[in-house]
Amino acid sequence: xxxxxxxxxxxxxxxxxxxxxxxxxxxxxxxxxxxxxxxxxxxxxxxxxxxxxxxxxxxxxxxxxxxxxxxxxxxxxxxxxxxxxxxxxxxxxxxxxxxxxxxxxxxxxxxxxxxxxxxxxxxxxxxxxxxxxxxxxxxxxxxxxxxxxxxxxxxxxxxxxxxxxxxxxxxxxxxxxxxxxxxxxxxxxxxxxxxxxxxxxxxxxxxxxxxxxxxxxxxxxxxxxxxxxxxxxxxxxxxxxxxxxxxxxxxxxxxxxxxxxxxxxxxxxxxxxxxxxxxxxxxxxxxxxxxxxxxxxxxxxxxxxxxxxxxxxxxxxxxxxxxxxxxxxxxxxxxxxxxxxxxxxxxxxxxxxxxxxxxxxxxxxxxxxxxxxxxxxxxxxxxxxxxxxxxxxxxxxxxxxxxxxxxxxxxxxxxxxxxxxxxxxxxxxxxxxxxxxxxxxxxxxxxxxxxxxxxxxxxxxxxxxxxxxxxxxxxxxxxxxxxxxxxxxxxxxxxxxxxxxxxxxxxxxxxxxxxxxxxxxxxxxxxxxxxxxxxxxxxxxxxxxxxxxxxxxxxxxxxxxxxxxxxxxxxxxxxxxxxxxxxxxxxxxxxxxxxxxxxxxxxxxxxxxxxxxxxxxxxxxxxxxxxxxxxxxxxxxxxxxxxxxxxxxxxxxxxxxxxxxxxxxxxxxxxxxxxxxxxxxxxxxxxxxxxxxxxxxxxxxxxxxxxxxxxxxxxxxxxxxxxxxxxxxxxxxxxxxxxxxxxxxxxxxxxxxxxxxxxxxxxxxxxxxxxxxxxxxxxxxxxxxxxxxxxxxxxxxxxxxxxxxxxxxxxxxxxxxxxxx
Length: 821
Hints:
Largest sheet: 19 strands, antiparallel
CATH topology of one domain: outer membrane lipoprotein receptor (LolB), chain A
Oligomer: single chain
């Protein structure tokens, strides 16, 4: 009996000792839906130990497991339960993706069977939205951004191997991803943002990762623009040039119809899901669904797409928002943007996830905390390593993203290796027949960060030069420093057979302060110049518009303080006419009365000082770079151009003063306006040459010339010596009117109107014009082109009333979000 008791005690001691000696290991990870959305409140249970936990708002879970085999169950209402087994011998990471259980959802969701209640719900939100816009004076939040594009490229048919420019260029490209690695563009960022109730922003980017082409990735900074649906309109320049009417705008019932799809219960909340339907097919509006919480009358979820009319760069674009109650305020804690765009043979499907956390409201900020500098990227932001990113990511990367980043980092290490760089330099520096004949030759020294370029043989001959056939040769040098300072040197030398003359130039330009956008340049040479650079298309290439010159030009431009730019120029030139110059017969066949303009040889010693000031110019400060974002105020310009007398030489002497105001601004859903007002006057006209005149440009016969600088129906170009006033105004309705017209609203045709006024007292000349017409945007590969046709009517006190039809072509500048050459 005693022995049995002793054995039992020894057995109990053994079991207890074994239990205490067993090790525990950690199992952690995320639970996401099939669409990679985090799932909060999911039950994660260790079946064999009868322990468990629930996921947090980011879908994150963490468990302790006994050493050995463990069975894990992951379950949530509306999703199929996932069960898996793990062997705990070390700390483990396991991410779970749950599938929707449609049968279970059908049993939970209560379908709407009564009359449509959606309009009453929207009315309640409209009554509440003013207080929602005043929830805080300011806030601070931590923001994580991940933007990913998946690329699908249509492969062209294989071509015969030959030494083509494309082949040489391909040899210089970085090593490509293998077919097993997904083709992606990726951007990641962690930042701290501040925002005021009135929408003023300030951000500090602490970590940034860029892989692949970033041009069409959306929301790489909070300054890209956000969708605040409690505001009446949203204007996102990178998406389109229209303001988009919110489904919660004050006049929403004029723009939208609503339909109650269902309501459901989520914890303590009763939530209405409402379908948003645009009333007009062509307007820049949203379509999709919004969800509203009863009694609170706030947005819970948003899932909206922008209609085609509102898009410029993207073919499709949508936004999802998830709101949560944070410190008694309803705030969007998760925002997702998704888009599609086709560029040539490449299709891109993109998605950006924005997660906001660690909110702090109504902070005591310094008086001028929100200023012109709306963002700063720290010097360490681009140097963060893999370990750092793994620690700060609030959600895991997908398997494809992990593969892509791993491979890109491997390739990045490869392309930065000395062996690879030496091999690339060897290919680039190799002299080959195509390079000598038509590609041009180059030489790279990566250690010194220098590049040389030499023209090809085909560039030696210029059959269309002034004075007939010429031979010429050019070479260039470029050096870029780590701090973004840059140096350019270019040169060219030419010889004309008919006149046995030598021309050429040398220019040096140094971009020496990227933070102040400061540049200084020096150029000297001899050749030809134009008398009137703003001549009409029919006159610009006439011999009467050219003269011979020898010159030295020194220019400098810098920013003295934010938005205030100062420029200075010192210029010497000797001007001679072309009366004794011999020309080829080609110009005589193209133009009639094509004689050069005679004038005496003169010299000019000229200085030009100018300022441009844009109040409240917003900008981002990157390491060694300043990124200008624009301003809501006009730009003011002033310059004084002085030609100085020099004894003993026939010099031109004058003083000219010029001033201007220009601005582009949005007029809500009505479109975009642009204006320019300028005035000028010669204060001194002691000695003027024809190239010193101020010219009022005549109109082209069929071409609608740039409306901010020219007039369309002035019969001919003429000079101005006394003071004059120019005004120009253009308004792009961006489809506001045509979207209301049946059938026409399907054509994507837009409307434009504008006008101008010119007053020249010395000629007793007044001219005014009005124009209106239609234009349409076309895609050409990656580019956007706007073609237009306009009716113009002009009136002058000298030639009466005239009219005509003009045509225009304008490219889209994606970097500046403007239409201009």
